[in-house]
Amino acid sequence: MFTRVCKAETVPEGGMRLVIADQHLIVLAWPEEGDLTAVQGVCPHTNTPLADAEFDGRVLTCPVHNWTWDVTSGAPIEPQESALAFYPVKVEDGVVYIDTEGVAPLFAAP
User: Fold this and answer.
1) Residue 5 near residue 16 (C-beta atoms within 8 A)
2) In 3-state terms, what secondary structure has residue 68?
3) What is the pLDDT of residues 52-61, one digit of tens each?
4) Which of 6, 27, 30, 40 is 20 to 30 A from residue 59's alpha carbon, by CA?
5) CATH number at residue 30
6) How far is Cα 71 from Cα 26, in angstroms, rounded to an integer?
7) What is the pTM of this model?
C-alpha cells in the first residue's frame, strides 16, 4: 500500500531528504537526470540515520564510515556487501507516495 510522504517539489533535482512511511525511515532522492527513488534511511553498518549523508546527485555517502550506494538502485559501491533496501515510489498530482509493504531495511553482517 502506497503512503503519502511529501510534495515532490520539496525534493530538488540532485537533492535528497529523509521521510517516514509506515514507520520506515527512508531517503527520498532525486538523482540528476533521473526519477525519484527511495532507499532505506539508516546505514546498514551502524543503523545510523542518513539525515546527514552526503549526496552528489547519484551517490549517497554515510557520514559515519563513508560507505556509499547508488540511489538509483540501492546497490552498494563501497563496500560491495552492503546494499540498501529499495522502495517503490510513485508521484501523482505532485505528491510522492512510497510503498513499504514487503520491504525491510537491510543490515550488514557483524
Assistant:
1) no
2) strand
3) 999 999 999 9
4) 6
5) 2.102.10.10
6) 12
7) 0.94
